[in-house]
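Problem 12. The chain below contains 132 residues. Write out its predicted structure in token notation.
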Amino acid sequence: MRTIMIMAAGALIAAGVMHLNKANAEEPIKRTDLVQHDIDVPGHEAAQVRVDFAPGAFAPKHRHPGEEIAYVLEGALEYELDGQKPVTLKAGQSLFIPSGIAHSARNVGDGMASELATYIVEKGEPLVVPVK
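Solution.
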């Protein structure tokens, strides 16, 4: 009986791990909100978000209602800002993205890539606005 219980527990753990791996594979870009707070600039707030990119993941063109500073935590990300040549940043490098400028990002490395995005944005506006 004990052997059957151990085998059943092992099967449940294996199924859970497979489910987690499947869920991670289905989520090429994961955003984790870290902090959002009012600042002294009237009508504005600061927000900080961690963005994790699976290998090859692409964040299509979008813009923000304020400035963004992107700091690459790991991997290599290629950013393309409207009107500029693409730039590839590696861990430890950062990029300033002016208010309202459409841009995209792509993981161009072999493994996971992550950025810490810091925003100074208009309060009450959506943080990310897709661009067609």
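Discussion. The chain has one helix and ten strands. Students who got a different answer should revisit the alignment rule from Section 12.3.
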